[in-house]
Specification:
The protein is α+β, with helices and mostly antiparallel strands. It is built from nine helices and 18 strands. Helix 4 packs parallel to helix 8. The longest helix is centred in the first third of the chain and has 18 residues. Bound molecules: adenosine monophosphate (AMP) and magnesium ion. Magnesium ion binds next to helix 8.
Length: about 350
């Protein structure tokens, strides 16, 4: 996908190495010396820049990069050689284990969010030009026609054999969950390889493996949707911090700004008072899917959804600059000294 107006990926990672104490003069053993120096690498995949920081060896970094590229080549909606492309153009097919695993779990999230997440949204996303960069505002009739093909419940999928069937006109788009799934896969791979500390920034989707090598939590900045800098810092370990923001991809036409997240009921580019939704939880896939879905839901429904759930926390930033955080983040969230456009923080409680 092309990003014409997309801003640089600024979700800053505060690898607080800069603020941490200098290493001990005589490290206890060679293993610790090696682990104290991360290997770092950048991959351009899934239309974004991915930064990997791994307390391990070059081998593990290379394995992570290979795995990311492998998943990209299966999941891309625009690459003519991908599985998703083949399914969309053939009306179905047999998926590899990875793609079947992702689709099965993505469909569960579509159901769980009452269709706010809908992986069959692709015909509408394409009509808006979000995948081609040929941006335009589709007319109401056109949207109505395309919406007739949008309904994730109509995707025929056999988890056992990976067979997927799409009705004529249907096309799927796993762009809302692919990076989160990829993060989970890379984390498992690193864990299996003996890594206990790593931080992945997959284009603003941040996923932490363990804590920093000194045992302190990773400090992750949540981007300020209104300007430079960040809206807050989260201290986490072993968790995913995933944001959907209007600023990630958008275009302007007739004095209006249109964001890349689509309401599957109306086909409209979502504009409901929220500017960014960050989800914090154990599963990158779940956080990624829910960041998109809660963005579609809007503040009130997103809060209700959180109240009924127990597998994530969230930070919702509204157009007026208000920041809402759920109570599980109260102890780990802090505000920056200064941030333009932002108002106070409200803590949302369960009761
Ligand atoms: P994310 O950045 O994770 O919120 O994902 C946004 C991407 O998911 C968009 O660029 C579209 O490709 C796709 N998308 C947009 N709206 C939806 C939706 N309601 N459900 C599923 N995918 C969507
Ligand atoms: Mg998402």
């Amino acid at each position: 996908m092309k990003r014409v107006f997309a801003l640089p990926l600024l979700l800053a990672l505060l690898l607080t190495g800069c603020g941490s104490p200098p290493p001990a003069e005589q490290p206890p053993d060679a293993q610790q010396t090696a682990a104290a120096q991360p290997v770092t690498g950048t991959v351009f995949a899934m239309d974004t820049v991915m930064d990997l920081t791994i307390y391990g060896g070059e081998e593990q970094l290379a394995a992570a990069q290979t795995r990311i590229k492998e998943l990209e080549s299966k999941l891309s909606v625009t690459d003519e050689n991908s599985e998703v492309y083949a399914v969309n153009h053939n009306g179905g097919g047999t998926l590899s284990a990875d793609t079947a695993d992702l689709l099965g779990r993505a469909l569960e999230l579509c159901g769980r969010t009452g269709g706010a997440l809908d992986v069959s949204i692709y015909p509408v996303v394409r009509a808006w030009g979000f995948t081609t960069g040929e941006y335009r505002v589709p007319g109401e009739e056109e949207l109505e026609e395309l919406l007739a093909h949008v309904d994730y419940t109509q995707i025929g999928f056999g988890e056992e054999d990976g067979q997927v069937t799409l009705a004529p006109g249907m096309e799927m788009d796993l762009g809302s969950v692919a990076k989160g799934y990829t993060g989970d896969q890379v984390i498992s791979l690193l864990r299996e390889g003996g890594v206990t500390s790593a931080l992945l920034n997959l284009g603003g989707n941040v996923q932490a493996l363990g804590s920093k090598p000194d045992g302190s939590p990773w400090r992750i900045a949540v981007r300020n949707p209104f300007g430079d800098g960040y809206a807050g810092i989260l201290e986490v370990d072993d968790q995913a911090v995933i944001t959907s923001g209007g600023y990630e991809r958008y275009f302007e036409a007739d004095g209006q700004t249109y964001w890349h997240i689509i309401d599957p009921v109306t086909g409209a580019s979502v504009r409901n008072g929220l500017v960014s939704v960050t989800i914090v939880g154990d599963s990158g896939l779940v956080c990624d899917g829910l960041s998109t879905a809660l963005f579609v839901m809007g503040l009130e429904d997103a809060v209700e959804f959180w109240r009924a759930a127990d597998d994530f926390e969230t930070i919702l930033i509204a157009e007026g600059g208000q920041i809402y955080i759920t109570e599980g983040l109260e102890a780990v969230f802090s505000l920056p000294d200064q941030a333009s456009g932002l108002e106070g923080v409200t803590v949302i409680r369960r009761d």
